[in-house]
Prior knowledge:
CATH architecture of the largest domain: 3-Layer(aba) Sandwich
Number of helices: 14
Distance between the termini: 58 Å
Strand content: 15-25%
Oligomer: single chain
Helix content: 10-25%
Amino acid sequence: xxxxxxxxxxxxxxxxxxxxxxxxxxxxxxxxxxxxxxxxxxxxxxxxxxxxxxxxxxxxxxxxxxxxxxxxxxxxxxxxxxxxxxxxxxxxxxxxxxxxxxxxxxxxxxxxxxxxxxxxxxxxxxxxxxxxxxxxxxxxxxxxxxxxxxxxxxxxxxxxxxxxxxxxxxxxxxxxxxxxxxxxxxxxxxxxxxxxxxxxxxxxxxxxxxxxxxxxxxxxxxxxxxxxxxxxxxxxxxxxxxxxxxxxxxxxxxxxxxxxxxxxxxxxxxxxxxxxxxxxxxxxxxxxxxxxxxxxxxxxxxxxxxxxxxxxxxxxxxxxxxxxxxxxxxxxxxxxxxxxxxxxxxxxxxxxxxxxxxxxxxxxxxxxxxxxxxxxxxxxxxxxxxxxxxxxxxxxxxxxxxxxxxxxxxxxxxxxxxxxxxxxxxxxxxxxxxxxxxxxxxxxxxxxxxxxxxxxxxxxxxxxxxxxxxxxxxxxxxxxxxxxxxxxxxxxxxxxxxxxxxxxxxxxxxxxxxxxxxxxxxxxxxxxxxxxxxxxxxxxxxxxxxxxxxxxx
Length: 553
């Protein structure tokens, strides 16, 4: 494998890579603003310039390039020697930083990007300690460029990442460079707002505080945020994301790079679609039809009573009514949730009907010029849930939502265990009508709807950011995700609820749900052997705790 030397150390690289790509692969920092692995190379920020020596192809002797070269553009060559810490390279870095800060307002205390700003970091690492510019700064306007994005033009360093993104990735071309010299600025084309399905990605791309997210604006200082690796829990794409939260509150969702799934991007649907997690309408305490609401100060008693009511109803179902149980597992649930729920249903009734809940589909898949695909299927785990149910069904067919409704109409079923966890109302008139024919309905859901209104017992479930598990996306890629925050108030994950119900049936203390243990158990079931090989976040994407030390004054 070819090798090059960067700042005195040798590193291997793949043929065709540039110097900066080889360096970043080995976690060697070379300062850069305009370079991004998902965009074309323009080499216009100039801070990555390095002093390069390369073997003469005739003599093999190392010879210097006549001037500093952009490491983002220069192809790496075997035997090449690169210096980004030489006096010439350091002098260039200081000069570039000085020029970039000439017209910058230096308003870090009120900037949302403070704490994760490359201009701050590089100013400290590569800049001068004091500005020599004493003239008046050019003042650029603040612009509302789209429904999700604000542009603070005076903070912009003209890296053009955002412009290239709208040209090369989305192909929508809303952004352009207007003007020249010290007065040039990013702008939208007349009559065109930055309003494509991936618009929020320009905020992630911006290395400074020029492009800001309206939804996150002034909400939280980034150094207080904790980051938990997760998976898109709203669509079938399986996009890799980071859930950023503090004190049990989610503040934003950002993409995690994964070449095999979503590259560096996520849709605005995923970026902003998590708000139902903190909805005021969330179900937070169990309820039993025919009795007064439980005391919120006694959640343990409420859960014990509700679980006992379910257990009593299931016992009567088989011993008195002599009817069967029907289980509807939502495609919004994890594979582990489906496994524990199905195991419980089969323990009540070995002939229980196992069914996959409604799978929402909106339009058709849409692929952008850059290769990113938006999935029309708005459920993260329809394939995973079906695979788990089929493995546990013992050869019996697993019904879909329509088959579930038809089965209830047959009169063979005296109880239905129904799960939801959708971000919005999912109950169709036909589903509500079918459930009215069942004597006992146990609903596990996150938001109130027609099913929770008619249910005999309602148990509050947890959203995907409040539990750990795994999803199987539209390309059958199984991916694990971690719990970001605790369930709101007294809600529980569906897997934990199933374990509580199993324990009540056996008269034993409930086991505590653990995703890894569950996957190991599932892998012993025929058809689920691959559960332990679910893709997980790499170490570089592991949960990140805030390192901010708070001192009480």
